[in-house]
Write a structure and sequence with these properties.
alpha/beta
Length: about 180
């Protein structure tokens, strides 16, 4: 937690405050059946994909709550909404991120802090290539092609949006 406190303090020192937080870091973990899933991997994936989201968000809320404004965007996954075989701790953590988002959205409503999730969908990333090594990555959009929903959720235009789950690729289609 000391590193998180240091990070948030440095961001505030350089930029004065924090208006937007995007929790996007994550790891895949092994693609095993749960019965074969190593406990050490389970703990590592949950720590990176759920506990870290909680820790960073908690620290940033210490900045956002007094200013009574902000937007927190948590990156989820399709397997965080509909579980699938061999997605183990990654899916469980993303389900947790969805739930954490809903709880925080309700708790932060009076502070005018919006909390939403975005499922990027299949995107041309290294993690996607690890999960689907046989897939042609060129059929997928690059990360910069799906940023529209993140920009929208970071902007004042989305002030009425909180506690919702967005699909980046569907959002992009509906905006074009």
């Amino acid at each position: 937690m000391r590193e998180v406190k240091r990070l948030v303090a440095e961001v505030c020192r350089v930029y004065g405050t924090i208006h937007v937080l995007v929790n996007n870091a994550g790891i895949l973990g092994p693609r095993e059946f749960l019965v074969d899933y190593p406990l050490s991997s389970w703990e590592e994936v949950l720590k990176a994909n759920l506990t870290a989201v909680f820790m960073v968000t908690k620290e940033v809320l210490g900045v956002m709550m007094p200013q009574r404004t902000g937007s927190i965007i948590n990156v989820s996954s399709g397997v965080g909404r509909v579980g699938k075989s061999r997605w183990g701790a990654y899916a469980a953590a993303k389900f947790g991120v969805e739930g954490l988002t809903q709880v925080l959205a309700d708790e932060m409503r009076d502070y005018h802090i919006r909390v939403n999730t975005v499922n990027p969908g299949g995107t041309r990333t290294e993690m996607r290539a690890q999960a689907y090594p046989e897939e042609d990555p060129m059929i997928l959009p690059a990360p910069e092609e799906i940023t529209g929903v993140f920009v929208y959720l970071a902007s004042p235009e989305s002030q009425a949006e909180t506690g919702k789950s967005f699909d980046a690729r569907d959002w992009l289609k509906n905006k074009n």
